[in-house]
Amino acid sequence: MFDTMTFTKVLGGFAGAFLVFLLGKFVAEKLYHAEVAGHHDGEVVQGYLIETASDEGGQEEEGGPTFEEVFASADPGKGERVFNKCKACHKLEAGENSTGPYLYNVVGREVDTATGYQYSGALEEVADVWSPENLNAFLENPQGYAPGTSMGFAGLNKVEDRADVIAYLATFSD
């Protein structure tokens, strides 16, 4: 069954497949990586740079409305629906803390002053008062705005949702 010709064909097939694999790896390395001229140790950098949106600039997309423009026409009724995401951790009654502090009279209130709630201290480092602008920045990305905050919410991406929920919270003020 196994004669020398069959053994040679099988061994040649494996060797050929291995050579094709090595050739493919060599071509891929040449396409996607380039050695940096003037550097030793064979430092390798990516050959093709894919441009992405920069992190610099405003929070809203270019050409989009600013928070102040959206907040001026915010709808507290829509904000009540958006607030349903917040109800799991926050209450609107004064003094009733839950997982998070109560949000009664939060717009315009000093940061970290909800009675009976233990804050992490991260908010005091970034803001003094919960102005609509500070609330907007915090609700967009809580961890990015105040690193170390105990709020585990991912944030509200749409500026309209943030403006509506802040307008809704403003209706619960003295």
From TrEMBL:
The keyword Nucleus does not apply. PROSITE patterns: CYTC. Keywords: Electron transport, Heme, Iron, Metal-binding, Transport. InterPro entries: Cyt_c-like_dom, Cyt_c-like_dom_sf, Cyt_c_1A/1B. The keyword Heme applies. SUPFAM superfamilies: Cytochrome c (SSF46626). Residues 74-173 form the Cytochrome c domain. PANTHER family: CYTOCHROME C (PTHR11961). This is C-type cytochrome. It comes from Roseovarius aquimarinus.
